[in-house]
Amino acid sequence: MATNAEVMPQALRWADEPTRTASAEEEAKCATIPSTPATCAPEQPEHPEASEEEDAKALPSVGSQRHGSGCLPCAWFWKPQGCLNGAACLRCHLCPAGELKRRKGEQKAKRAAARAESPDSDEEQEAQSELPSVGSRLHATGQCKPCAWFWKAEGCRNAQSCGHCHLCPAGEAKARKQKKVAALRAKEPEPEMVPVMYQAVQAVQAVQVPMQYPTLLTPWSNMQQAHAAAKMNMCPGCTYCSSIQPCTFFMPREAGERRTAHEMRPFAPPVPPPQQPPQMLAQQTQQAPQPPQPTLPSRGSALHAEGQCAPCAWFWKAQGCHHGAECGRCHLCPASEIKLRRKAKAMAKDQLKTEMRNATSSGTLILD
């Protein structure tokens, strides 16, 4: 006789057999019948778009939708301040804290494996490993770029991964810059100058005369005597200055100052006496030999004899004046002419100020 304990498992087994046979029959039917939405296809929600929106809202960020299938970990999410973009972040907030470092390590390992599999010889790899930086490979060819940080106290932070050369000496960068500047200057055309003019020009000592202005208290005769002492000195041996008569006096003026009628009178040649007939004057002018006009080194040198020229500051430098003969400033003035004129101008201004102060303190009025 079978006991109740033995009968119960058998009864349960018999009760499960009809359900198993029914499920097997349904699977066989599904295998023979093509899949349709009404037969074997899994049940889908009525609104798939709504379900996707709900899933997106449930995720911590927009970039977390691709988690596990090519997402990009967010490096700021695991920091103390957190990700400032929040749910709008395009990177994944579901990746663990060290995921970004792990992926970088994998990429480095892949690169190292690719380098190991490259066809370069062992000797070349050893030579490259012995170089102090990556940019030092071109040092032998002369096409390398010197590293400016390598010779400083703090050194180069990039070390062997630096793209500049660490084999060049300390002053190589400055030396290359100087060579480049010298090459550019050598390409520029030098202005053509007459060699005689360099020998004729000599330094002229500037005469500093205190500036005096005509007032109601000082007569004009005294002013003429003061101006007579300020006559301009001609350059000894200069072909241009010797061919032109010197002016009566030279007096620097400021822009906007008033001048008297005597000062504004133009320089004109002397008028011939009226006793001579015009025919004789014409014959004399035709017979008189005209002196050859000397060639000027620049356009601005035409006013050198009159003392109204503007000295050229570039003419006396090493590179010279690039404009050459077309320069609008004087090339006949000595090198120190600009400084001397500035000093004379400053002294004249100071003296005028002191005179004005003395006149105002004494109660007299000075009129121009």
TrEMBL record:
Coiled-coil parts of chain: none
Bias-annotated ranges (Pro residues): 267-277
Basic residues: compositionally biased ranges: 103-113
Biased composition (Low complexity): 278-288
Region annotation Disordered: where it falls in the sequence: 1-62, 103-135, 258-301
Name this protein carries in UniProt: C3H1-type domain-containing protein
Organism: Effrenium voratum
